[in-house]
Design a protein that fits this description.
This protein is 64% helix and 0% strand. It is an all-alpha fold.
């Protein structure tokens, strides 16, 4: 079966079990990002924060996500990708737990900056660059486009379901009569549980996801003589 006729398959031909785990973790995270993106400002408003304070915390989540993603991009090749994903899953769980139990401005701001909550309902997080590099190593090059297409679709569908799940606190309030803040804190607790699930999905990843960069033993073997015979030019001052 050719690549052009396998669009309907759940996974492209030749994809490993690592690919299934990464896509499953992507779905879990996107679902959580979907509902926290809507609930975060509503939760802060329910805590009686001013519009400026809410803007600061939301801005902190964006700045923290950008800086953390940039930092991971700079150090990713020096560390195990599996360990980076495990650390990110643990950070996601801690972020959800922090928002579930904290109500003060400064604690929430710190958690927003160092955590993984993303108010854009998209996959702008520390997970995305690491997962994408992992996907390039666990499928045949000819199947990468098909795998990345599924990665994108899974995230979009799960994110849409997460946005729909943001109605959960209102339903809980109408059905049980609980306080709106408590219902939204339970959703942040669910976000923490999703972080743990992501961690468990990443844990069985195999060494195949790691990059192996080996420098050639003699990088100038063929051009060494040419480099040695290049004329040296003395720079003259411009008058």
């Amino acid at each position: 079966m050719t690549a052009g006729h396998e669009w309907w398959r759940l996974m492209p031909q030749g994809a490993s079990s690592d690919a299934i785990r990464v896509l499953a973790a992507r779905a879990v995270r996107a679902f959580g990002d979907g509902f926290v993106a809507l609930l975060l400002p509503i939760y802060l408003l329910d805590l009686c924060f001013s519009a400026f304070a809410i803007g600061v915390i939301v801005c902190g989540t964006l700045i923290g996500t950008a800086l953390l993603t940039l930092w991971v991009g700079m150090i990713a090749n020096r560390y195990s990708r599996r360990r980076l994903l495990l650390a990110a899953g643990l950070l996601m769980a801690a972020t959800g737990a922090g928002f579930a139990v904290s109500t003060g401005f400064w604690p929430l701001l710190v958690i927003a900056i160092v955590g993984t909550i993303n108010p854009t309902a998209g996959d702008a997080s520390v997970f995305s660059p690491v997962e994408q590099t992992v996907l390039t190593h666990i499928v045949d090059p000819r199947r990468r486009t098909a795998l990345f297409a599924r990665y994108s679709v899974v995230g979009s569908v799960a994110g849409a379901l997460g946005i729909l799940a943001a109605a959960g606190p209102d339903l809980a309030v109408s059905w049980t009569g609980c306080a709106p803040a408590a219902a939204m804190q339970a959703m942040f607790g669910l976000y923490a549980v999703l972080g743990i699930i992501s961690l468990l999905l990443y844990r069985p990843l195999t060494p195949a996801i790691e990059a192996n960069y080996e420098a050639p033993p003699a990088p100038l073997n063929q051009s060494r003589r040419l480099v040695r015979t290049l004329p040296s030019f003395e720079r003259k001052p411009l008058i």
